[in-house]
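Q: Please design a sequence for this.
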């Protein structure tokens, strides 16, 4: 089968290579150097103008060059391109204008939660820093009891979300980020967990939960980077975590043209679920961990979801999988990335647990591509008699793989999964 990946920054490169390894003809559209020398890349590189409008002619040229039976989108922000390709009756996985709106417009995402009956912490939207500062100063409930979370709109959200300690630090951080619009949301104490379903147009599949660590350093120190690592496990469709959370969006999904994963990040406080934000795309590096549990071809799952086919989706049940993100300096800085850093130690024994990111091949050797310094992630399944045993085994396998790699100035956390046994026990009735 011919498959076209359309990637804004290269996030799905590892999935594209796995599907190519399954024997399919894969083209990887990406405007940077990720994948150079490792995968077929079409010559058309700019599908969207500087104003954000898709070029129909360039999209048509790309489709003529690649002749795909399936098009996979790996990030929000290309919804107009996805909708145009869908209008040509080419199956699309993971992209639509509606999906862009759900994730990037926090106000709309919050509205959808409320319409679906998902409880949201008290939230207020702002379009100026001055207005927000006045609001924070006038809060009747003082900090820290009345802590607030700063959440900018758009793709900067994962890097600049900020949980305040008090009024003063929140005001200074809002001034520093200077991003509008944004939300201020009441902080809720509890267990943070994401729950995902995959939607094929009629029904949902592949239900799973993820416990993710978002900060750069061990013990949740350092900046928020979106994902430093996670633990994933499959769920039954009738699990409370599904029915009380992400499952409530199914009726609305039937009115959209979206096909792919939908994830609801939430806080469980006591016996109540609070919705925080949506992810209407593949989630990184949770998708790599989930694929560690996959016993079927990845393309089979993607194609069946995109076409609405009714099929069994083969994932190992009653097992956990872990992913650990591997980076190099100056990550998590957003600039100054280095091209040409060697990546050594990948072999036939460990390759299936290594998912490449900011990587290309130069003169027959793997090196960094200089795109974002997010080099790869490693994954592993766990086994054991208790959940603690399972997590420790998955972590041991991940770290064993990492110890065999040689990457100058490599960076990764060694405590991924540490909170999972205790948090899982607290949430036992939700699973």
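A: Design:
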């Amino acid at each position: 089968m011919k498959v076209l990946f359309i990637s804004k920054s290269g996030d799905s490169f590892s999935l594209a290579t796995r599907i190519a390894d399954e024997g399919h003809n894969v083209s990887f559209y990406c405007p940077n150097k990720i994948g150079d020398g490792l995968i077929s890349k079409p010559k058309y590189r700019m599908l969207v103008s500087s104003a954000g409008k898709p070029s129909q002619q360039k999209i048509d040229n790309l489709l003529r060059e690649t002749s795909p039976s399936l098009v996979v989108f790996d990030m929000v922000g290309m919804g107009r391109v996805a909708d145009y390709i869908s209008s040509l009756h080419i199956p699309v996985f993971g992209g639509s204008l509606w999906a862009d709106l759900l994730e990037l417009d926090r106000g709309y995402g919050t509205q959808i939660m409320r319409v679906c009956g998902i409880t949201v912490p008290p939230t207020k939207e702002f379009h100026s820093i001055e207005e927000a500062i006045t609001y924070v100063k006038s809060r009747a409930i003082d900090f820290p009891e009345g802590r607030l979370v700063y959440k900018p709109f758009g793709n900067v959200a994962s890097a600049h979300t900020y949980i305040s300690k008090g009024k003063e630090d929140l005001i200074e951080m809002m001034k520093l980020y200077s991003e509008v619009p944004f939300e201020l949301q009441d902080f809720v104490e509890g267990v943070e967990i994401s729950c995902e379903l995959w939607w094929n147009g009629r029904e949902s599949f592949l239900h799973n939960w993820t416990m993710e660590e978002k900060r750069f350093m061990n013990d949740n120190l350092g900046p928020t980077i979106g994902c430093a690592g996670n633990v994933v496990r499959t769920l039954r469709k009738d699990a409370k975590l599904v029915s009380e959370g992400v499952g409530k969006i199914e009726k609305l999904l039937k009115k959209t043209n979206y096909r792919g994963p939908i994830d609801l990040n939430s806080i469980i406080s006591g016996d109540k679920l609070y919705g925080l934000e949506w992810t209407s795309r593949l989630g990184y590096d949770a998708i790599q961990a989930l694929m560690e549990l996959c016993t079927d071809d990845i393309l089979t799952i993607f194609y069946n979801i995109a076409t609405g086919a009714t099929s069994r989706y083969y994932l190992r049940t009653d097992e956990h999988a872990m992913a650990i993100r591997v980076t190099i300096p100056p990550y998590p800085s957003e600039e100054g990335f280095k091209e040409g850093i060697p990546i050594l130690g990948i072999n036939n024994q460990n390759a299936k647990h290594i998912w490449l990111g900011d990587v290309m091949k130069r003169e027959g050797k793997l090196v960094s591509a200089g795109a974002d310094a997010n080099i790869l992630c490693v994954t592993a399944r766990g086994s054991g008699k208790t959940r603690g045993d399972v997590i420790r085994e998955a972590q041991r396998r991940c770290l064993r793989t990492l110890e065999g790699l040689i990457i100058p100035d490599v960076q990764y956390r060694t405590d991924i999964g540490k909170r999972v046994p205790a948090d899982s026990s607290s949430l036992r009735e939700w699973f």
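Q: Thanks. Anything notable?
A: Residues 122-186 form a domain with the Dna Ligase; domain 1 fold (CATH 3.30.1490.20). The mean pLDDT is 93.
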